[in-house]
Design a protein that fits this description.
Layout lengths: L12 H21 L11 H14 L3 E5 L6 E6 L13 E7 L19 E3 L2 E3 L3 H20 L7 E7 L7 H8 L10 E4 L5 E4 L5 E4 L1 E3 L1 E13 L5 E2 H4 L6 H11 L21 H9 L4 H7 L11 H7 L2 E9 L9 E2 L2 E10 L5 H15 L4 E8 L2 E2 L7 H12 L4 E3 L2 E4 L16 E3 L15 E3 H19 L2
Parallel strand pairs: 3-6, 3-7, 7-20, 10-18, 11-19
Antiparallel strand pairs: 1-2, 2-6, 4-5, 5-21, 8-9, 11-15, 11-16, 11-17, 12-14, 13-15
Helix pairs in contact: 1-3, 1-12, 3-12, 11-12
Length: 474
């Protein structure tokens, strides 16, 4: 079941403008999706930022390409003539997104090529469709629709689109670290990223619902390398007295797990966890659809008996993303490996600080294996806006008006975003940062056959437009 039902009012000039211009918006979206923009490898990145800028310019925004030491950002703004005076006191919203995408991976796993957008069953299939091109583009097209309807309210709209979210947001951090003047008047930061929350319908089928989130989990990526002997050895001639790097790696990984198999047994790891009672109350109110999730994933069971969303959103986690060591070819080889490595990520909750967590992980591993090579790879801090923020009211109302149902509210997005870096700007230290996903719950971001329901794309445009209107009414 898709998430693509739309709610448009024929008597609303902005809704009429979106409907009239929807074919153009889709064409522009497909143009963006056809441009590779893989920040991890650099593929297509040189052409991607100018293309994004040209699309935003067509929407009537004033556009600037901001160069950084990594990939450029695209900054755009729309200021109605009535509030062109910089001293005018009007609401200002900053929409954030990213134009870079994950590598496509194995081409044979895609039904159609990753950078050749194709429409099937009411959805556009392409890398970046939902993560994040279709979502940030919705903001720009909302600006265009409001202008076309001659209905732009007294609100300043700013859009910041970075080119490195999928590889550490170095350019964004550099830009924000310079305390940019253009962000000094922002009252609300809104991020449209991630999938909409899914709940089970009457038949037990997951379906997406409008979603409002007050933050996101953080992430810390680590690589662990273990070396024992100076070369791979014969397991019969040396196995037993000589340690195998693969065995030692597995032992080290196991040492970080609690006896119950779910918690993390690292001294100091969770010292700074701070989940508010209000956030816990939101978690308890999330519909329990764990049975449908288990069935959809064909799982024998979950890793814990604790409530699904309590475990997901209020406690950190550790995942072994990949393992390497020993013989990987066909058949067997009685080798005693001298080297082995693991890639891990730790999903963090407020108020864990990634560097402090890394130090705890490194100290734990080096105490047990002094020669271990523990490498910090990348991180995003967790971020949470107080769930009682008044800024949520217009967002909530806009979602309800467009999607036709009350949004589900979650304290955190399970995934990770660089939203916390906005708090490093002095003027934004206390500004609400809200996450409102527009993409369908099954968008398959980071996976083959990523796709965005075109109904979600259309409703995303309408939601951004309705929010801009609602801000003027506050």
């Amino acid at each position: 079941m898709t998430d693509d039902s739309t709610t448009a009012r024929d008597d609303d000039p902005v809704d009429r403008a979106v409907t009239a211009r929807l074919d153009t918006y889709r064409e522009r979206l497909f143009e963006l999706l056809a441009q590779p923009s893989v920040s991890a490898t650099g593929e297509g990145m040189e052409a991607a930022a100018p293309l994004v800028g040209s699309v935003l310019d067509e929407c009537g925004m004033v556009v600037e390409q901001v160069e950084t030491g990594r990939y450029p950002l695209v900054y755009a703004e729309y200021v109605p003539d009535a509030v062109a005076d910089a001293s005018a006191t009007v609401p200002t919203v900053l929409f954030y997104g990213h134009y870079d995408v994950q590598p496509p991976g194995d081409p044979s796993a895609w039904t159609t090529p990753a950078f050749e957008p194709a429409v099937r069953d009411g959805a556009v299939y392409a890398r970046g469709a939902g993560d994040n091109t279709g979502q940030f583009a919705a903001h720009a097209f909302a600006v265009d629709a409001l202008c076309a309807a001659d209905a732009f309210p007294d609100v300043r709209v700013k859009l910041l689109v970075e080119g490195g979210e999928e590889s550490g947001s170095e350019g964004l951090r550099e830009y924000l670290g310079a305390d940019p003047d253009e962000l000094a008047d922002v009252d609300l930061v809104m991020v449209a990223d991630g999938p909409r929350h899914a709940v089970a319908d009457r038949d037990g089928t997951p379906t997406g619902v409008p979603t409002l989130l007050y933050g996101n989990r953080g992430v810390l990526s680590v690589q662990l390398n273990v070396r024992t002997a100076n070369a791979d050895l014969h397991s019969g001639n040396f196995g037993g007295p000589v340690p195998a790097a693969t065995n030692r790696l597995v032992e080290l990984l196991a040492s970080m797990r609690a006896d119950d198999g779910d918690g993390i047994a690292i001294d100091g790891f969770d010292d700074d966890v701070a989940i508010t009672e209000a956030a816990r109350a939101l978690v308890e109110a999330i519909p329990d659809d764990s049975a449908a999730i288990r069935e959809a994933l064909d799982l024998d069971g979950f890793a814990t008996d604790d409530p699904y969303y309590e475990r997901l959103l209020t406690r950190p986690s550790m995942t072994v993303n990949g393992l390497e060591g020993g013989y990987q070819g066909e058949g067997g080889k009685t080798v005693l490996p001298a080297r082995a490595s693991a890639k891990l990520d730790f999903r963090l909750v407020p108020d864990q600080e990634p560097r402090a967590v890394f130090e705890a992980v490194r100290d734990h591993l080096e105490a047990r294996e002094p020669g271990a090579d523990v490498r910090y790879r990348s991180s995003f801090p967790p971020m949470q806006t107080p769930v009682d923020t008044p800024a949520a009211a217009p967002v909530r109302a806009s979602l309800q008006a467009v999607w036709g149902e009350e949004p589900v509210e979650l304290p955190l997005l399970g995934g990770s975003l660089p939203a916390a870096y906005f708090r490093t700007v002095p003027a934004l230290a206390d500004v609400p940062v809200l996450v409102v996903p527009y993409a369908n719950h099954d968008q398959r971001n980071h996976s083959p056959n990523e796709h965005l329901d075109l109904g979600c794309f259309e409703n995303g445009i309408r939601t951004s437009a309705r929010l801009i209107e609602s801000l003027a009414e506050q």
